[in-house]
Amino acid sequence: MSHDFPVYAPSEEQELLRATVRELADAKIAPFAAEVDEESRFPQEALDALVANELHAVHVPESYGGAGADALATVIVIEEVARACASSSLIPAVNKLGTVPVLLSGSEELKRKYLGPVARGEAMFSYALSEADAGSDAAGMKTRAVRDGDAWVLNGAKMWITNAGVSEYYTVMAVTDPSAGARGISAFVVEKSDPGVSFGPKERKLGIKGSPTRQVILEDVRIPGDRIIGAEGTGFKTALATLDHTRITIAAQALGIAQGALDFAIGYVKERRQFGKPIGDFQGVQFMLADMAMRLEGARQLTYHAAVKSERAMHGEKIPDLTFVSSACKALASDVAMDVTTDAVQLLGGYGYTREFPVERMMRDAKITQIYEGTNQIQRMVIARQLLK
C-alpha cells in the first residue's frame, strides 16, 4: 500500500491566511457587528478594513490586479469574516458572485475594464438575477434587453439584490429572445451611474441587516453593446454555472456564523454556574456541544472539498459532480448553521434571547443562508436530479 497521497487539508499558507483574517475580523469588524445590526447600516468599517488588507475580493486573478486567491482561500476569508459579522462577509462573497459571470464568460476587454476596479477596492459588484415573480423559477424573468443599433436598452426590476445601491457594478440577466425560454436570456454589466438605473427602498429584514437588499430598477437603461457577458442567449447558462461556484461561498458564510455561535456558547458554558458548578460540566450540555461541533466540522469538510473542485473547474477542468457538491455543501452548511445557532441561544438560556449577547443575531443571520442562492428545497431538487440523471 502506497502512503504517497496528497493530504486533504488547507495548506500552511491558507491556515496563515485564516489566522490573519480572524485577527483582523476580531479587531476591526466584530466591535461594530451589533451596532451595524441594530442600526441596519452598511458596515463601512468592515469594508475599509478589508480593502486596506486586500481581503475584499481575493478571488480576482493577479492578471487583473487581484490577489489571485484560490477558491478554498476565498472560502476561508468569507468564513472568518462571517464568524465576526455575517453582513460584512457579504462584501467578499458578493464581489465574487457579481464577478464570476464575467470571469466565466466575459470578453477580455470586459474583464480588464471591470475586474481591476473591484480588485483595487474602488467598486463592488452585485448580481441581479431574481425578480418579484421569478425567484426559484429564475428562467421566468420578465426584464427585457432590446438591441438598438450598437447598444442594448434594458427595462425591468430585479428583486432581493444584495448590496444594491452600494455596488457600482451589476451583473444583470435579461430576456433578449422571449420565444426561446431559458435560451433567450443574456447577461450584461450595468453600472450604477447608467441613466435609468435606480433602487427601491431597503428591505426590512430578519437578519444580515448591515447588507442592504433592494430592488434594482431599470428604466430605458441604454448600455454599449460590448457590455454583454458572453454570446447572446447564453446568460442563463452562465447564471447556473456561476451558482455552481458561489453556492460554496454561502456555505462558507454559514460555517462562519455557526462557528461564531459555537465559540461564544463554549465560552459561556465554561463561565455560567448553576447548582454550584459550570453548566459545561453537565452531560446534557456537553452532548449539545458535541453535536454542534460534529455537524459543523462535517459541513466544513464538504465545503472545502467543494471549493477545491470549484477551483479546478475555474481552470477549465471538467468536474462532473461540481453541481452536486456545491448544492450539497450549501444545503448542509446552512441547515447546520440554523441548528447550531438555535442551540447556542438555548445554551445561553434567557440571556441568549436578548440583544446583550451575539447569538440571537447569529441565529437571525443564519436563516438567510437556507434561502438565498437557491432555497434548500431547490438544492435538494438539484441534488436529486444529479443523482438520477
Automatic annotation (TrEMBL):
Annotated Acyl-CoA oxidase/dehydrogenase middle domain residues: 127-221
The UniProt record lists the keyword Disulfide bond: no
Domain of life the protein comes from: Bacteria
Keywords: FAD, Flavoprotein, Oxidoreductase
Domain Acyl-CoA dehydrogenase/oxidase N-terminal per the UniProt entry, residue ranges: 11-122
Residues of the Acyl-CoA dehydrogenase/oxidase C-terminal domain: 233-388
Cofactors demanded by this protein: FAD
Keyword Oxidoreductase among record annotations: yes
Family matches, as InterPro entries: Acyl-CoA_DH_CS, Acyl-CoA_Oxase/DH_mid-dom, Acyl-CoA_Oxase/DH_mid-dom_sf, AcylCo_DH-like_C, AcylCo_DH/oxidase_C, AcylCoA_DH/ox_N, AcylCoA_DH/ox_N_sf, AcylCoA_DH/oxidase_NM_dom_sf
Family: Belongs to the acyl-CoA dehydrogenase family.
Official protein name in the record: Acyl-CoA dehydrogenase
